[in-house]
Design goal:
By secondary structure, this protein is of the alpha/beta class. Helices cover about 40% and strands about 15% of the residues. The protein binds 5-S-methyl-1-O-phosphono-5-thio-D-ribulose. 5-S-methyl-1-O-phosphono-5-thio-D-ribulose binds next to helix 2 and strand 9. It catalyses: 5-(methylsulfanyl)-alpha-D-ribose 1-phosphate = 5-(methylsulfanyl)-D-ribulose 1-phosphate. GO terms for molecular function: S-methyl-5-thioribose-1-phosphate isomerase activity.
C-alpha cells in the first residue's frame, strides 16, 4: 500500500480524514485539490507531505506549462499549504528546481523524492530497532504519539516503522498509542495501521502518557518529527513535549525517528519555527480556543535522533 503516489496523470492519496471507518482513494487533478487535501489532513505527516509537495509541482508544471507567472503562483501555493513540516516546502522546491527542463523532468524528480522516502523508511526501521534493543533490552514496551506509519510516509513510516520492525523480529513487548488530540491521529490512524499489521496495542488519552511512564509501564517513547532544528530541537505533534518531560522524569529514553529530509540546518532552534495554529473550530464550539498543531521539544530532552543514515546523540548542526 502506498499512501500517496502518481497514477495515470494525477496524484492518488488515501483520504485520512475518513479512516478508520472507510478506506477511500482520492484522485487529485489540480493544485487547488491538493492544497485542500493537505490543509484538511487528507494527506499528512512530514515525509508524505514532502512527496505531496513534489507531486504538486509536477501537477502545476503540466497545467501551467505556458504561463510562467501562474506556474510560480501555483508552486508557492503548494509549498506554503502548511507551515511547520519542512518536508513540504523542501519537496516542492526540489521538484521546482527542474521546471526549466519541462514537466517530465519535474515528474521524474518528484518520483525520486517518493522513492527516497520509501528507502529512508526501511533504513530507519532497521537502525531504530537496533537502537531500541540496545537502549531498553530485548523486548521493549513502547509509547508512541500521533501517526508515524505508512500513512505519514509512503509505505512503512518512521517511528511506527521501528515498532513494526521490532514486532517482525519478535522483540516487541507492547505498544501504547497516544490518542493525539484534537484530530486523533493516534486513536484513528496508528491504531488502524497496528491492527492491519497484527500488532496488539492499547490507546491512551494524551494526558495519561507521563503517568503510565511514571508507573513503570513504558520502556521508551518513540515518535517522529515535522522538523528538527540545527540545535536538535524537535518540532512534532502537540503533546510531544509533555511526553518528553514524562520520559525525562521517569528516566526512560525519548527517541525521535525521522528521515534526513526532516532535518533543517537553516533553522537554528525551535522558537524560530512557524507553529501552525489550526483555529478554534477543531476544539470547541462554545468558547475561544488556542489550537497549536505542533510543539517544540528542547534538544536536551532527546536521547537520540535516528535517521536513514545515522544515530545523532548531539546537535545535527554540529555533526552533519
Ligand atoms: O498534523 P499532522 O498529522 O500532519 O502531524 C504529523 C506529525 O506530527 C507526525 O508525528 C510527523 O509528521 C512525523 S510523520 C512520520
Amino acid at each position: 500500500m502506498r499512501t500517496i503516489d502518481w497514477v495515470d496523470g494525477a496524484i492518488e492519496i488515501i483520504d485520512q480524514t475518513v479512516l478508520p471507518g472507510e478506506v477511500k482513494i482520492l484522485r487529485l487533478h489540480t493544485v487547488g485539490e491538493l492544497v485542500a487535501a493537505i490543509q484538511s489532513l487528507a494527506v499528512r505527516g512530514a515525509p508524505a507531505l514532502g512527496v505531496a509537495g513534489a507531486f504538486g509541482v509536477a501537477l502545476a508544471a503540466r497545467v501551467h506549462a505556458d504561463d510562467p507567472q501562474a506556474l510560480a503562483r501555483a508552486v508557492r501555493r503548494v509549498e506554503t499549504a502548511r507551515p511547520t513540516a519542512v518536508n513540504l516546502a523542501r519537496g516542492a522546491q526540489r521538484a521546482a528546481a527542474l521546471l526549466s527542463r519541462g514537466p517530465q523532468a519535474v515528474l521524474e524528480e518528484a518520483c525520486r523524492v517518493r522513492d527516497e522516502e520509501i528507502a529512508a523508511s526501511d533504513a530507519m526501521a532497521a537502525r531504530g530497532a537496533d537502537l531500541l534493543i540496545e537502549l531498553c533490552g530485548a523486548r521493549p514496551r513502547l509509547l508512541t504519539h500521533c501517526n508515524t506509519g505508512g500513512l505519514a510516509a509512503v509505505t512503512v513510516g518512521t517511528a511506527l516503522g521501528v515498532v513494526h520492525e521490532l514486532h517482525q523480529r519478535g522483540r516487541l513487548a507492547g505498544v501504547i498509542a497516544s490518542e493525539t488530540r484534537p484530530l486523533l491521529q493516534g486513536a484513528r490512524l496508528t491504531s488502524w495501521e497496528l491492527t492491519r499489521w497484527g500488532i496488539e496495542h492499547r490507546v491512551a488519552v494524551d494526558s495519561a502518557g507521563p503517568f503510565l511512564m511514571a508507573r513503570g509501564e513504558v520502556d521508551a517513547v518513540i515518535l517522529g518529527a515535522d522538523r528538527i532544528c540545527a540545535n536538535g530541537d524537535v518540532i512534532n505533534k502537540i503533546g510531544t513535549y509533555a511526553h518528553a518531560l514524562g520520559a525525562r522524569a521517569a528516566g526512560i529514553p525519548f527517541v525521535v525517528v525521522a528521515p534526513e529530509s526532516t532535518i533543517d540546518l537553516d533553522t537554528p532552534y525551535g522558537a524560530a519555527v512557524p507553529i501552525e495554529d489550526r483555529g478554534p473550530g477543531e476544539i470547541t464550539q462554545w468558547a475561544e480556543a488556542v489550537n497549536p498543531a505542533f510543539d517544540v521539544t528542547p534538544h536536551d530532552l532527546v536521547t537520540a535522533i535516528v535517521t536513514d543514515r545515522r544515530v545523532i546523540t548531539g546537535s545535527p548542526g554540529s555533526t552533519a
